[in-house]
Design brief:
Elements: H1 8-18, H2 20-32, H3 43-55
Length: about 90
């Protein structure tokens, strides 16, 4: 039976293809002053790219589906013992 599991590299390739506008904006920001790259220099562009990778752009507008002020949520960790939290 063939596996329908998508490998992480395939997920990354698909996200990269869908987020080319955001990736280009981030790349331009970094290259603009690549000799003096600093932490958070392109934070706004990076967060847009990250959001696009996590959510994807809206099909009709090319914009991300989540407002910029919202942060991605993480799934709760599974307990190894299967028990309820204390």
């Amino acid at each position: 039976m063939p596996s329908t599991r998508i490998r992480p590299v395939e997920k990354f390739a698909r996200a990269t293809a869908k987020c080319s506008t955001e990736a280009a904006a981030y790349g331009k920001c970094v290259v603009a002053d690549y000799n003096a790259v600093q932490k958070d220099m392109c934070a706004k562009e990076f967060l847009r790219l990250k959001d696009c990778f996590l959510v994807g752009p809206l099909p009709s507008t090319g914009q991300k589906a989540r407002p910029a002020n919202m942060t991605p949520t993480r799934r709760p960790r599974r307990r190894l013992n299967g028990g309820e939290p204390p």
